[in-house]
Specification:
This protein is α/β, with parallel strands linked by helices and 283 residues long. It has one domain: 4-Layer Sandwich (Metallo-beta-lactamase, Chain A). 23% of the residues lie in helices and 24% in strands. A 7-stranded mixed beta sheet has the order 6-5-4-3-2-1-14. The longest helix is centred in the first third of the chain and has 12 residues. The termini are close together. The structure holds zinc ion (2 copies). The site of one zinc ion has 5 residues, from loops. The site of one zinc ion has 8 residues, from helix 3.
Length: 283
């Protein structure tokens, strides 16, 4: 483990943010009135202090705040963004890189061939500096972000256009798994368990606690693993494995956002956790 290489959580909620766009909930209204972003949209930063490079996984609409935090810690310019998939909360912030915004140079966007063509279409409406490069990645192949930090894309089932990936970020002996969105764990449970054994921390889609959360929409139309069920499904894992698992990408309705809730207590009693904005994992 080195203090020169690390991952940092830069946001923990689902694509609609918290306060959630259009929310009439009193507490959330208060945040809007006071212009407070209580929780930012799910994002992970990666820093290599030796090579002075830093990366984001996903370009959320909260990118300016997330980049600020990343730069404060890394003192490095942003070197690139790895995209998990093409839903709004994960690419909506790419416009900040345009000429009117960061106007950054010498910069890479990593994703699959299919995702890159979708991203290019989305970015067509903005004016970009020509020095943005797209780097095609293939599922399962390790690629270097820097000399010491490698990444591997793992495909997971999700209803987005194009591909949906999680990433395993690794140095020689430490690894972080980052899987913010997937439809269910059942379809890739074998891979999930293999990766959980390999990594030191595993950030997993914890959008909903249970099915009762969405009264205005059919929860089947927005499939995600349900944390309450996962606690049961994964009950035979060792405590060591459970402690690695931290839920991220929480929906505004998820009671795990409230640390005083009985659901949060139950999660902790079962040795699982919730990702916290600003937490570091040294690599
Ligand atoms: Zn999402
Ligand atoms: Zn998604």
């Amino acid at each position: 483990m080195s203090k020169d290489f690390f991952g940092i959580v830069l946001g923990i909620v689902q694509d609609g943010g918290y306060p959630h766009v259009g929310s009439l909930n009193m507490k959330q209204q208060e945040y809007f009135q006071n212009a407070i972003i209580k929780e930012k949209i799910t994002c992970l930063g990666i820093v290599d202090r030796i090579e002075k490079k830093s990366f984001l996984i996903d370009a959320t609409p909260h990118l300016p705040y997330q980049l600020d935090k990343l730069l404060e810690l890394s003192k490095n310019p942003l070197s690139g963004i790895l995209i998990t998939h093409t839903h709004w909360g994960h690419i909506g912030g790419l416009g900040w890189l345009s000429k009117e915004g960061l106007n950054h140079q010498d910069f890479k966007i990593f994703s699959s061939c299919d995702n890159i063509s979708i991203i290019k279409k989305y970015c067509d409406i903005f004016e970009f500096n020509t020095n943005i490069f797209f780097e095609k990645i293939t599922e399962g192949n390790l690629f270097h972000l820097t000399r010491n930090i490698k990444a591997k894309a793992v495909k997971v089932p999700h209803r987005a256009k194009g591909d949906t990936f999680g990433y395993v970020i690794a140095t020689g002996d430490r690894k972080i798994g980052y899987f913010p969105d997937c439809d269910s764990l059942q379809k890739w449970k074998g891979d999930f368990l293999k990766i959980l054994h390999e990594v030191d921390v595993f950030y997993l889609d914890g959008t909903f606690w249970n099915r009762k959360e969405l009264d205005s929409r059919n929860i089947n139309s927005v499939p995600h693993p349900l944390v309450e069920n996962l606690i049961e499904d994964l009950k035979d894992l060792s405590v060591e494995m459970k402690r690695k698992l931290k839920f991220i990408h929480l929906n505004q309705t998820n009671p795990l956002l409230d640390k005083s809730s009985s659901e949060f207590k139950k999660l902790r009693e079962n040795h699982f956790g919730v990702a916290e904005d600003g937490e570091l994992t040294f690599l």
